[in-house]
Amino acid sequence: MGCPMSSPCHTSAVLVVFMAFAVSVRAEQLTERSCDVVGDESSESQMERALLKKLEPLSQMRFNVTVEKGKTENYVYHFRVCREVNSTLRDFGGLVQTDRQNGKTTVIGRINETQVFNGSDWIMLIYKGGDSYGRHCSGEKRRAVIMISCKRGVIASSFSIISEEREKEQECFYLFEMDSSLACPAEDSHLSVGSILLITFASLIAVYIIGGFLYQRLVVGAKGMEQFPHFAFWQDLGNLVADGCDFVCRSKPRNAPAAYRGVGDDQLGEESEERDDHLLPM
User: Fold this and answer.
1) What is the torsional sign of CA 200, 202, 203, 207?
2) Pairing state between β 93-99 and 157-165
3) How far is CA 15 from the centre of its chain?
């Protein structure tokens, strides 16, 4: 049975639609937008995508630096990696300048016009499409250049502004720098030939001892020291090594004459027999 348009049923339906719309808008606001490389999606290179993915751990961090030049300039620069500084404004501002004297904000660069490239130990992140200069640089849009240098052991540190180039007719920019281990190349873990041989030799010895022990115990049924593989061979080898050490390291020759000599029968002569004649019975 249908409800008339003036009934409470109609009011409830309007409220449900309104709530669904509010929830969808709120969900869209909570979803932060990320970097969009300059150009069509089909023209984005795999290198740029890989670099942006490499910088993803920095996206949840915020960086600020304050610059004071006398009494006329007092600015705070807010920076985020591939995220909007103020997501509620939905202005794509990835690097924003705030004038501490009057509270005015200026977008230096936007994440929807991003360029990124790298070298051996650095990554260059560029936000284009900022607010226009006005009187400087032929009125072109501002641009932020962030130089991320390799520093192992830190995820991010030392965010600072280097300079602002605005005295040219074109291609003006703000230059920033920071340190991060994400810009470092992968550390090589090549082993030397000697290390490889040593590891291989140690592995073979371990396999020989463990395998031989199991064979002697489970198959042959040996007990005690006889469980050691080729026990008799190694025992003989140990004796030979001991003899070799004795031969090389002993301090006195093996065939050295004794310190005393026994008296032989040839030295007694016949005199001893004559002296015993008187002891014989008559």
Assistant:
1) positive
2) unpaired
3) 53
Tokens for 199?
A: 């590891």
Length of the chain: 282
Backbone phi, then psi, for 262, in 5-degree steps?
Answer: -75, 160
From edge to edge, which strands make up the β-sheet containing 93-99? 63-69, 73-79, 93-99, 105-118, 122-129, 144-150, 173-180, 157-165
Q: Is 1 exposed, middle or buried (CB count within 10 Å of its CB: 0-12, 13-18, 19+)?
A: exposed
Cα–Cα distance for residue pair 202/195, rounded to 1 Å: 11
**pTM attached to this predicted model:** 0.60
What's the maximum distance between 2 C-alpha atoms anywhere in the chain? 167
pLDDT tens for residues 173-188?
Answer: 999 999 999 999 987 6
Q: How far apart are CA 203 and CA 73, in angstroms?
A: 68
Residues 206-261: tens digit of each pLDDT: 998 898 888 888 888 888 777 888 878 888 888 888 888 877 887 666 565 555 55
Nearest to 63 by CA among 143, 148, 132: 148
